[in-house]
Amino acid sequence: MRVRVEGDSMRPALVPGDWLLVRRGAAVRPGDLVVARLPGDPDRLIVKRAQWHGADGWWLESDNQRAGGRRDSWDFGPVEDIVGRVVLRYWPLGRRHGKRGVKRG
């Protein structure tokens, strides 16, 4: 699936206007960028970094904790509804990602 980034919560790895390719149902490891359903508003998707998996789901965090309007597991707790793992940022062409970008090592 394709997802467009909005907001500044994932800077510097992702910026508003970036387009991502997401593999639905892919295995997730700590450090991966993921797309999940926002708890309390399941029609809205969020892009966050998976930090750890516990008994109640994944703890998801924003890279930019100071972003206005940022919401992550610090606000709503662990998340069970992970839609998929970000595979790559495909647009815009030529922009390098931040040191914690989307490449998987």
Automatic annotation (TrEMBL):
**Record carries keyword Membrane:** yes
The record's subcellular locations are:
Membrane
InterPro entries named in the record: LexA-like (IPR039418), LexA/Signal_pep-like_sf (IPR036286), Mito_IMP1_subunit (IPR052064), Peptidase_S24_S26A/B/C (IPR015927)
Q: Which UniProt keywords apply?
A: Hydrolase, Membrane
- Domain Peptidase S24/S26A/S26B/S26C per the UniProt entry, residue ranges: 3-66
**Which PANTHER family does the protein's record reference?**
MITOCHONDRIAL INNER MEMBRANE PROTEASE SUBUNIT 1, PROTEASE FAMILY S26 MITOCHONDRIAL INNER MEMBRANE PROTEASE-RELATED
Name this polypeptide is given: Peptidase S24/S26A/S26B/S26C domain-containing protein
